[in-house]
Each structure stands twice: as C-alpha cells, then as structure tokens.
C-alpha cells in the first residue's frame, strides 16, 4: 500500500482495497518512508504489516515496536543494509532481506546470497541471517516453499561455505534444477505483452514560458529516493531554460498509454553537461521520463523510446544509443548478461555526459514516484507529496 497519505486521511477507496485484501487473508505490505508517530500508528492500525522504506535504525525500531515487520532493502539506488543491520541482533524474527530495484549488471555479481555472506562475515548470527531470507518471508507470506521439515517439499540450495555463499546446487520440489554453473531446465520465452500507445513528441511542446518571479525545482540526491523542493528566481527572460552552470536541467514525463502533451519541470542533482537520457521505467505508472540539457536532445531520447515501445535511451547530442525493454516497457526477455552489458554501457554514457550519480537510470525512475517526498513529477505536472496534491511550476 504505497499511498500512505490515503490511508492516514481515510480515503474510502484506499481503505476498501485493504479491507478486501484482509478478507482474503492477504498480507498488506507497507511503503511509508519516514513515517513516524501518530500517523504511523494510524497506518499500521489499518492493517499494514511490513515496510521496506526505513532509512534509519530509529525509524525501523519504532515500526517494529508497533508490530510491523521491517524488510531491509539493499538495491541499486536504495541501500539501507548498513543503517539497519543491527536489527539482526535486536529483532531477528521481525526482519526480512530484499533487493528491490537492482540493476542487471549488479544482479550478475550478487543478490541475497552475497548479502547473507556479507552479514555473516560481519559477525551476525548465521541462522538469524539465513532466516531473514528464508523462514521469515515464507511464514509471513504463507509461501508454498519447503523449510526442511518432515513432509515439506525439498526446496534448498547447497553452498561452498557460508562466508562466500557461492551456490553449488539448487533443488526445487525434490528435483535438482542447477548444478555447479549448469542450468538443468529449458527456458521457454513467452509472448511479450505491452501497453504503449503514445506518439512522438515535438520540440515546441517543451518550451516553458516564464510566468512568475520564482520557480519550483526538484532536487535529487545520489543513493536516495527522497527529493527536496528548492525555490529559484526565474530572472527576466521570456522563457525559463536549463542552466548547466547551476545544474538546472529540464525533466519531462510523457504519458505512454495515450496521446497527451508532456509535463515539463526542472531538476537539480543529475549533473549533465550535455545530452539527455530517458526511460520507460518510471515508478509507479511507468510513463516515459527524461532529463536533459536542451530540448533537441530530450526529444531525441523520448522519441527513441516511443519507437522501441519501451526501453532506455541516451544521446550525447549526436548519436542515440538505446536498450529495448519489450516486456511491458520495463523488462527484457534477453539473457541477463546481455542486458547487463547494454545497461552498463548506457549508464557509463550518462557519466561521460557529466552525471556523477552512481545509478542514474534508477534515480531517474524514482523522480516520478508520487508517494516519496518531497517534490516529484507526474504526467499531469509537479506533485507535492507533503500536501499530496499537484502544485504549479511557477510561484507568482
């Protein structure tokens, strides 16, 4: 339940969804970044059982004290393991381990297995650590997975040793499906499904006429899903434009499900000196989102994604490079290694254009997520998560 303001404020539709889930005995996962105090108690009382957005140990301890289980996230952009790992000593039965939005090239190097090895090497109890990725989630979600009990399905892995967690064998339902690097089952790709119905954009749709003395800027931060709102003086120009000397870039969101004009705003924190990049991975609606230093380059990357019907694209002002995501515009049915190589190439291109972000595409994807404060951009314009409403770009 990502709409935590809706829960707190008693939105009828939101509460009805939770009620239906509870009647069906479905656990309701939480998404409440920074939520504390009376509002947190109201959120949990509605039937929310977990949260994976804790950034501090204090926040996690408060949520656990109120009966909520904490899912420790260690992904590509959101990394909270170091801040929360002492929960393994304090409340090992109330935590679960997750990745949540992890790049393909990082997935090749590590997933939950390597996180477990890191924690064991840090001195945390072997069984508490393993339980957070196995027993705790199986019990909480009532998963159909064996737990090495009499009568259970034989679902387990064999590793070389806990300090390395290199998986040697994988068994599912009593059958070996992986053996020392060899996959023992045949993969058959399904028919990709997609919902992509927008047309190309044009440069004149991105012009922003100066309508006030001040403008709202989104400020992004490396490794953080939160943003800040900055109020910036607009000056006397007819149009408000990007300014790379102050790291003020243009950001747009284009509805990909229907033809509608793009929403346009401005953002700091991405650091591009030239070019633009775009993606159709944009939580939660997965519209097209792009950041760039000029309108021509933004048009080029957005229209490349329209051509691909989903994917990632980067331009340096001359050539456009891209990766198609043919499954729903957010996934690929190509092998992980192949996708990882292309993804890393595009990420490095953005760094060559001046961005210092460790995860530029992942950070970009969260700039459209309207439930993490403070200021985000939807296909309908700027959205202030604190007041949970759209706000104008200009302050007159």
Beta-strand segment tally: 19
The Cα radius of gyration reads 23 Å
List unreliable stretches of 5+ residues.
Answer: none
What is the helix fraction of residues, given as a range?
Answer: 25-40%
Identify the overall geometry: globular
What's the N-to-C terminus distance?
35 Å
Report the portion of residues in β strands.
15-25%
SSE class: alpha+beta
Summed up, the domain count is 3
- Compute the number of helices: 13
Largest sheet: 9 strands, mixed
Question: Topology of this protein?
Answer:
Elements: H1 4-8, H2 12-23, H3 37-45, E1 50-51, H4 57-65, E2 69-73, H5 81-84, H6 87-90, E3 95-98, H7 104-109, H8 112-121, H9 126-133, H10 135-141, E4 156-159, E5 167-172, E6 175-179, E7 182-183, E8 214-220, E9 227-233, E10 249-254, E11 263-268, E12 276-279, E13 288-292, H11 295-308, E14 311-315, E15 320-324, H12 336-352, H13 360-365, E16 375-378, E17 381-384, E18 389-390, E19 394-395
Parallel strand pairs: 1-2, 2-3, 8-11
Antiparallel strand pairs: 4-5, 5-6, 6-7, 8-9, 8-19, 10-11, 10-13, 12-13, 12-14, 14-15, 16-17, 17-18
């Amino acid at each position: 339940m990502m709409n935590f303001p809706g829960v707190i404020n008693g939105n009828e539709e939101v509460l009805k969804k939770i009620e239906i889930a509870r009647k069906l005995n479905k656990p309701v996962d939480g998404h409440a970044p920074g939520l504390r105090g009376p509002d947190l108690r109201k959120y949990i009382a509605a039937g929310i059982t977990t949260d994976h957005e804790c950034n501090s140990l204090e926040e996690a301890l408060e949520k656990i004290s109120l009966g909520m289980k904490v899912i420790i996230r260690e992904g590509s952009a959101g990394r909270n393991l170091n801040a929360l790992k002492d929960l393994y000593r304090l409340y090992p039965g109330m935590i679960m381990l997750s990745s949540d939005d992890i790049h393909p090239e990082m997935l090749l190097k590590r997933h939950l297995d390597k996180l477990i090895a890191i924690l064991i090497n840090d001195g945390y109890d072997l069984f508490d650590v393993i339980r957070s990725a196995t027993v705790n989630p199986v019990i909480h979600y009532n998963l159909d997975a064996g737990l090495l009990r009499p009568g259970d399905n034989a679902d387990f892995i064999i590793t070389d040793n806990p300090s390395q967690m290199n998986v040697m064998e994988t068994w599912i339902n009593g059958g070996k499906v992986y053996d020392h690097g060899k996959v023992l089952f045949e993969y058959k790709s399904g028919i990709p499904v997609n919902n992509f119905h927008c047309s190309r954009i044009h440069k004149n749709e991105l012009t922003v006429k100066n309508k006030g003395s001040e403008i709202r800027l989104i400020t992004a931060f490396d490794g953080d899903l939160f943003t800040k709102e900055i109020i910036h003086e607009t000056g006397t120009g007819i149009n408000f434009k990007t300014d790379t000397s102050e790291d003020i870039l243009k950001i747009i969101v284009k509805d990909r499900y229907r033809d509608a004009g793009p929403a346009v705003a401005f953002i700091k924190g991405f650091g591009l000196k030239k070019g633009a990049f775009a993606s159709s991975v944009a939580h939660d609606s997965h519209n097209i989102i792009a950041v760039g230093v000029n309108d021509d380059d933004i048009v080029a990357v957005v229209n490349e994604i329209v051509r691909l019907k989903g994917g990632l694209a980067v331009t340096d002002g001359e050539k456009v490079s891209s990766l198609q995501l043919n499954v729903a515009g957010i996934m690929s049915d190509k092998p992980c290694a192949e996708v990882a190589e292309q993804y890393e190439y595009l990420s490095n291109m953005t760094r060559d254009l001046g961005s210092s972000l460790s995860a530029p595409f992942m950070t970009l994807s969260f700039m459209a997520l309207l439930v993490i404060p403070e200021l985000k951009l939807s296909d309908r314009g700027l959205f202030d998560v604190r007041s949970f409403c759209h706000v104008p770009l200009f302050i007159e």
